[in-house]
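User: Some background: our group keeps a shared notebook of sequences we're curious about, and every so often someone picks one and asks for a predicted structure to add to the entry. Today it's my turn. The entry only has the sequence so far, pasted here. Could you supply the structure so I can complete it?
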Amino acid sequence: MNWPILMAGAEGAGGGNSGMFTLVWFGLIFVLMYLLLIRPQRKKQKEHERLLQELKKGDKVVTTGGMFGTIFAIDNERNRVVLKIGDNIKMEFLKSSIAAKVDS
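Assistant: Of course. Here's the predicted structure to add to the notebook entry:
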């Protein structure tokens, strides 16, 4: 088969609106991707940032690694928190590794 000849024939058969149709199609795909992927991810990121700003000593939290603990100290300058895991066990984590607050 002679592909270049077939492709040239297909381009001419569509008329002058094929470029506009392609542009509108890509626009719709971008809007769909924004609504389904980008917007929800930004919303989740803002909620996580708000959670990190509202953390205070005594809050019970879980880290992204699944470790439960109570906030013993917060160092905003170094972006770290110290979690009390047990009676005599304290561990230091990045503040961004806090996944959520725990109710009990």
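Suggested note for the entry: The radius of gyration is 26 Å. The chain has two domains: 1-53, 55-104.
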